[in-house]
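Journal club prep, shared notes

We agreed each person brings one worked example of a sequence with its structure written out as tokens. Mine is Terpene synthase metal-binding domain-containing protein. I'm keeping it raw so we can talk through how to read the token line rather than staring at a rendered picture. Sequence first:
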Amino acid sequence: MKPIYKALLNVHDEFYQEIMAKKEINYSVQYLEEAYKEIVLCYDVETEWLKKRYVQTMEEHLANALVTVTSPLLTTAAFVGMGEIATPEAFQWLQSQPRILMACSTIFRVFNDIQSCKTEDERSHVATGIECYMKQHGVSRPEAISELLKIIENAWIDINEEMMRPTMISRDLVIRILNFACLYGVVYKYNDGYNQTECTKDSIIALYEDSIPI
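Then the structure, token by token:
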């Protein structure tokens, strides 16, 4: 983990130097560094679980995995690029784990657990959400998957409700979280589009290359 963390800090330093050179606001990079620290600490937790062959409860799994799935880190990085509307209050709101961010992370995490379980079963990996649910509730894999899909449905309800409520931060920032949730749905809805990149090829081509006739 040390080389990974060092690489992340190097990226942080590059961000900071670039922003300082442009004489722009620099507080945002400090929040990004905190997000780096959080995810590395949570990776360490997963490493210990893997060493001990520990299968967590779903509550333990989600508490840690909603960070390691990288959604909070990616959202913080997205806010860094949003300029003045990404105020200190906006980053503090993000650090408070708002409901919409946790719902977005849940969609990412649970979809990933469902679609990547086959490839992760073939290598040494910390227990997935499916394994955790099966052990905790004494159910079969299909039953566990069915229940995890309900978790995703409830997370989308949370996102829809939060999008209808006023917030203390710019709407443009909130939409970034919504966009990430939509992305995760595309990548993982039918297969593991992250590890099996050929599965997302058509979507990428449709987005960037093929024009839509009007």
